[in-house]
Amino acid sequence: MEGLLCDEDWLSTSAETHGKRLSLVCVGAKEDEDEEQAAVSVCMAKEMSYMPEPHYKEFLETQDLVFVRLRCIQWLLKCRSRWNLSHGTVFLAANYLDRFISKNRTKEWKDWMVELLGVACLSVACKFHETYPPTLTQIQMEDYMDHVFDESSIERMEVTLLKALDWHLCCPTPYSYIHLLGLNLESSLLMANITELLVGAVLDHRLMPFKPSLIALSTIWCSLDLLPPITSQPSLSYFMRLFNHPHKDEMMKCRAVLEAVQSSRCPQSPTSVLMKDQSY
């Protein structure tokens, strides 16, 4: 997976240049599209092996774990801001968290157990994904959760986590698909909207049943709605071809949930309205 990640930057932060860039993506050389489609296909072929166990969403709801999971993911995001971690690290940690809980449904989960697991997940994700990972002491400096754990407890939890996941850490996430396609999340207002949607997706348990590729494509789809049709339609067609999802009904369901997540987080911003009306 790491070998497939693309470091290509979008070439401008201006809306005009970004619109042109999207058009260039859509009419690029067929060989480039074939390479990107092959890379996406590799991730899609293995993503089911890295998802939580079936009916995980329902388990969270019946065990009253929705809120504590939400707080844990919020803490991951706060740590990302404090230590300038990548979005990829947060999505990996969230994936580890959900997979571990879904594999341990017989346990009577307490809030402190989820918090300890969250610290261990972030620690492992940082070691796997960051060049200079923060220490366990630094990780817990973000005063958001209710408990502080000693290093030995966290390290034991890390070992338990790694064994439960069978050391399968390089997992496709919605963010990894965005990164794979060379979409730099800091390069424009459009990419900022994708970031906001991705964060909303990882926070909301209602998207648990959907594959990461579906979430990534739905995020791109929703964000392209901010552009004029002359730009958004060719771009959407390009990304649809890349992902080539056979189950269109699932794609529509995923987009509907993502739109509900978006509307529940905040109303449409004036910036989004202006972008919709702006010509490129």
From TrEMBL:
Keyword presence, Cell division: yes
Domain of life of the organism encoding this protein: Eukaryota
Entry keyword set: Cell cycle, Cell division, Cyclin
Record protein name field: B-like cyclin
UniProt lineage: Eukaryota, Viridiplantae, Streptophyta, Embryophyta, Tracheophyta
Listed CDD domains: CYCLIN_AtCycD-like_rpt2 (cd20544)
Pfam families linked to this entry: Cyclin_C, Cyclin_N
InterPro entries: Cyclin, Cyclin-like_dom, Cyclin-like_sf, Cyclin_C-dom, Cyclin_N
Domain annotation Cyclin-like: ranges: 74-163
Record SMART domains: CYCLIN
GO term, biological process aspect, one: cell division
Position of the signal peptide: none
UniProt KW Cell division keyword: yes
